Amino acid sequence: xxxxxxxxxxxxxMQFCGHSWIFTNMIIRxxxxxxxxxxxxxxxxxxxxxxxxxxxxxxxxxxxxxIDKSRLLPRFLQITERIIVLFVVINSQEEVQGKYVVCVLFxxxxxxxxxxxxxxxxARMGIYYLxxxxxxxSLCIPLYPLSVLAKGFAICVSLPYFESFGTYSIKLPLxxxxxxxxxxxxxMYLLVLFTGMCFxxxxxxxxxxxxxxxxxxxxxxx
Length: 222
Description:
Helix content: over 70%
Transmembrane segments: 7-30, 42-64, 127-144, 181-201
Number of domains: 1
Distance between the termini: 24 Å
Largest sheet: 2 strands, antiparallel
Structural class: mainly alpha
Organism: Rhagologus leucostigma
Number of helices: 10
GO biological process, one term: sphingolipid biosynthetic process
Protein name: Very-long-chain (3R)-3-hydroxyacyl-CoA dehydratase
Keywords: Endoplasmic reticulum, Fatty acid biosynthesis, Fatty acid metabolism, Lipid biosynthesis, Lipid metabolism, Lyase, Membrane, Transmembrane, Transmembrane helix
Oligomer: single chain
Strand order of the largest sheet: 1-2
């Protein structure tokens, strides 16, 4: 309906503005301070990044309620990956926040999201530009695996700090003998992360074929 379409347009616009601010801030800071700006990326843009990622949880509700026709599982995996790495791994360990991998990860996320939300906004209005459509369904194929590698590296970098500080590790008192050692949980999650990557990449190729097939390109040109 028109109301739902306007709601989705406003949502995409909010995400576009947030990620545009982050991306512009990162570029300006790098041009001004050079490599010194990389270490405090999280401190300068972390708040807005966390707000944008929390807002993205709404996309799961959009699919569940049927106002967004995207596939649920791939989008759910992509969103939860970011939430876990950003809030559980990076946000909880101050020592990790200053690592260069955080800057790389934020750059990849924002580059992907700027293209995606720009495409979505125009699509809500029935506007399709072939170069933007191609970029939206092609750029994610090489950049998503790179972002997964950056997530995996961020998790590996954080492991010594989780081991030293015991963050999120739980040891239940007697008579219980059950305990949760969080570094083991993160190591198991690495397997889930790279297994899910294979599934999501397959879905990305499927979406690219569905939107960039010869017939679809002709229809959008006309």
